[in-house]
Amino acid sequence: MQHISLQINHDAKQRPDTVKQKNAFPPNFIHSLDSTHMMLTSLHCYSAGLTFVSVHDCFWTHALTVDTMNKICREQFVNLHSQPILQELSNFLLLKYCSTVQTQAKNKKYQEYKRLMLLLAKVPQTGDFDLQRVKESTYFFS
């Protein structure tokens, strides 16, 4: 029997890599929206009595129910993305990270909080695309 030895440096106090964390947030947030869309689609397919399977961004059903699944998939995409997702994220982050701000203008920590609050409150404007058009789009889903 072989003995495997792991060397762990208990003295090293590793700090999280904040650059990696900041860079990882946007793609992970988008992935969470994609997975939410898939979950909503699967729940509505189940409610409609469809046999439905999904992995990542692939959706499967029986050939006879593809049109129904297609309709459900589009509807759930529109329903999800009609919500004020970025505004809600902004509100959550402001509440979580900026609700206990010291109001002393000369305090360095206050200046950091103020900068963070301004950044988190800056939500991009929505465009003028009519999201309902996704329901009729040729290439949304095939």
UniProtKB/TrEMBL annotation:
Species: Ilyodon furcidens (goldbreast splitfin)
Superkingdom, taxonomy of origin: Eukaryota
SUPFAM superfamilies (UniProt xref): DNA/RNA polymerases
Pfam families: RNA_pol
Protein name: DNA-directed RNA polymerase
Family: Belongs to the phage and mitochondrial RNA polymerase family.
Domain (DNA-directed RNA polymerase C-terminal): residue spans on this chain: 1-142
This protein's record includes keyword Nucleotidyltransferase: yes
Keyword Nucleotidyltransferase: yes
Alphabetized PANTHER family for the sequence: DNA-DIRECTED RNA POLYMERASE, MITOCHONDRIAL
Gene3D superfamilies in the cross-refs: 3.30.70.370
Reactions listed under catalytic activity: RNA(n) + a ribonucleoside 5'-triphosphate = RNA(n+1) + diphosphate
